[in-house]
Write a structure and sequence with these properties.
It is a single chain. This protein has seven helices and eight strands. It has helices spanning about 35-50, 55-60, 65-75, 75-80, 130-140, 155-165, 195-204, and strands spanning about 15, 25-30, 85-90, 90-105, 105-120, 145-155, 170-180, 180-190. The chain starts with 12 loop residues before the first strand and ends with a helix. It is α+β, with helices and mostly antiparallel strands and about 200 residues long. About 35% of the residues lie in helices and about 35% in strands.
Length: about 200
């Protein structure tokens, strides 16, 4: 992945209208968050992919090993142009998302890509995922990305509805994804960002 400098630091933010005790606060992920993020990711996989991926694979996921991978990825994030955000409520990490350059074959493009977005299962439907996605969209716009793309399991109806409500549309691209000895299908979603929409409108 080629380096891409971050132009705008990620400010802390909160979802308006939420009671103070439940308010969602976004901030950049730090090394101290790796264990909490690993718990969010492993829990998110087990909840979201039950029945869609081999259960043996999901059961074998290890939070300690995953925390090590999160730490290594975070250390390389700035060089790779990747932004990691965590969502907190009452000081507890309840969600994690990351975005960076769109990956295509062995290179990257000018578009952005949501690499991951996971929320603690008990916080699904409470606005945490929406807040994280909004934060990632804002950072992609600040980085001048013309569009934000992502891949989602074809049979993950809940996730597909979530992204569709956020303005993403399936573009017809589809790829197989091997996990735990099984092959599942992923479909690609995309959303043009405001700068790209404005440019298109100006061209008529």
């Amino acid at each position: 992945m080629s380096p891409h400098p971050l132009h705008v630091p990620a400010p802390d933010s909160a979802v308006p209208g939420e009671p103070a005790a439940r308010q969602v606060r976004l901030r950049r992920m730090t090394d101290a968050d790796c264990e909490a993020v690993a718990a969010v990711r492993v829990g998110g996989w087990r909840h979201a992919y039950a029945g869609l991926m081999p259960q043996e694979y999901l059961d074998a996921m290890d939070e300690t090993a995953d925390a090590g991978r999160r730490r290594a990825q975070l250390a390389a994030a700035d060089r790779a142009g990747v932004v990691h955000l965590v969502a907190e409520t009452a000081g507890e990490v309840v969600g994690w998302g990351c975005y960076g350059p769109y990956r295509e074959e062995d290179t990257t493009t000018g578009d952005g890509e949501v690499y991951a977005l996971y929320v603690r299962p008990e916080r699904i439907g409470t606005g945490v995922g929406r807040a994280l996605l909004t934060g990632l969209l804002s950072r992609a716009e600040a980085d001048g990305r013309p569009a934000l793309l992502l891949w989602v399991l074809k049979d993950n109806a809940r996730a597909r509805r979530f992204y569709e409500k956020a303005g993403f549309t399936a573009d017809g691209a589809q790829e197989p994804f091997e996990v735990g000895g099984a092959v599942v299908q992923e479909v690609r979603y995309g959303r043009r960002l405001s700068a790209a929409e404005a440019a298109a409108d100006s061209r008529g």
